[in-house]
């Protein structure tokens, strides 16, 4: 039972570079989410997807791009990384919307932009 | 838009004692879900307990229980018989029960700022 996996676990890059964070889930969950975690803010939603080829913006989408060509994958791309995007990024998935269908999280990617 | 507030940045408790973490939220919706997540140093996000707003009975999961006060928009977490393994960051989170909520995202979780819990032996 692999669940939801994120890669890489740690990443260091420079400003202006493009970087892609990967998220893969084995449950065939319809809904997938990207959050960023920053001190004092908790987790904030970047983008979400309700199904393959359906994505939409969350609270803090600027500077990020997502795609979802397959149900199981939901990569997050920083097209031109900035220092303000240094954060811990979490991918999550859920089967549906009910309380008995909570979001399951990956282990996070710590991204540092120098 | 919904907001979630955790007013205690840090809390501490002695092993085997009881501690309560506070959470308040603001919403105009009548149906929603509330969650507590635990984040240990390993960075995993672990679901601790969930509450459906239409249920008056407070949720319990072993040593974890909540005090859900809908009118006051309060959702506190009580940890009984605290253990060293309970040490972590705890997040309170809100989720609308509606698929479409003011144009915002499907099943979006709105998180509080987190409370760091230290357990002393």
Question: Can you walk me through this structure?
Answer:
- The complex is a heterodimer of chains A (114) and B (121).
- By secondary structure, chain A is an all-beta fold.
- Helix content of chain A is 0%, strand content 51%.
- Chain A is built from no helices and eleven strands.
- Chain A has strands spanning 4-7, 10-13, 19-25, 31-38, 42-51, 54-57, 64-66, 76-78, 87-94, 104-105, 109-113.
- The relative contact order of chain A is 0.33.
- By secondary structure, chain B is mainly beta.
- Chain B has no helices and twelve strands.
- In chain B, strands 2, 5, 6, 10, 11 and 12 form a six-stranded mixed beta sheet that branches. A four-stranded antiparallel beta sheet of chain B has the order 3-9-8-7, with no helix packed on it. Chain B has a two-stranded antiparallel ribbon with strand order 1-4.
- In chain B, strand 7 (60-61) and strand 8 (64-69) form a beta hairpin.
Largest interface: A-B, 29 and 25 residues
Fraction of residues of chain B in helices? under 10%
Q: Into which percentage range does the β-strand content of chain B fall?
A: over 45%
**What oligomerization state is this entry in?**
heterodimer
Structural class of chain B: mainly beta
Q: What is the element string of chain B, with H for helices and E for strands?
A: EEEEEEEEEEEE
Structural class of chain A: mainly beta
Radius of gyration of chain B: 14 Å
Please give the largest β-sheet of chain B.
Answer: 6 strands, mixed
Distance between the termini of chain B: 41 Å
Secondary-structure element order of chain A, N to C: EEEEEEEEEEE
How far apart, in Å, are the first and last alpha carbons of chain A? Answer: 36 Å
**In total, how many beta strands of chain A?**
11
Number of helices of chain A: 0
Low-confidence stretches of chain A: none
Mean pLDDT across residues of chain B: 91
Low-confidence spans of chain B:
none
Radius of gyration of chain A over alpha carbons?
13 Å
The helical percent of chain A reads: under 10%
Beta-strand portion of chain A reads over 45%
């Amino acid at each position: 039972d692999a669940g939801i996996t994120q890669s890489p676990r740690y990443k260091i890059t420079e400003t202006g570079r493009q970087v892609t964070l990967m998220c893969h889930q084995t449950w065939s969950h319809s809904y997938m989410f990207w959050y960023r975690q920053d001190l004092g803010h908790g987790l904030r939603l970047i983008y979400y997807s309700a199904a393959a080829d359906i994505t939409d913006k969350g609270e803090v989408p600027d500077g990020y791009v997502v795609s979802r060509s397959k149900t199981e994958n939901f990569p997050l791309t920083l097209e031109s990384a900035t220092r303000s995007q240094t954060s811990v990024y979490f991918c999550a998935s859920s089967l549906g919307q009910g309380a008995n269908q909570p979001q399951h999280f990956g282990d996070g990617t710590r991204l540092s932009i120098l | 838009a919904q907001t979630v507030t955790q007013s205690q940045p840090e809390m501490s408790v002695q092993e085997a004692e009881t501690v309560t973490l506070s959470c308040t939220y603001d919403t105009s919706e009548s149906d929603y879900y509330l969650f507590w997540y635990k984040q240990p140093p390993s960075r995993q996000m672990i679901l601790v307990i969930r509450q459906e707003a239409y249920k008056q009975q407070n949720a319990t999961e072993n040593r974890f229980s909540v005090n859900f006060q809908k009118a006051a928009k309060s959702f506190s977490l009580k940890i009984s018989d605290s253990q060293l393994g309970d040490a972590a960051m705890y997040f309170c989170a809100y989720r609308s029960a509606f698929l479409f909520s003011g144009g915002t995202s499907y099943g979006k979780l709105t998180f509080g700022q987190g409370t760091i819990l230290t357990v002393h032996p």
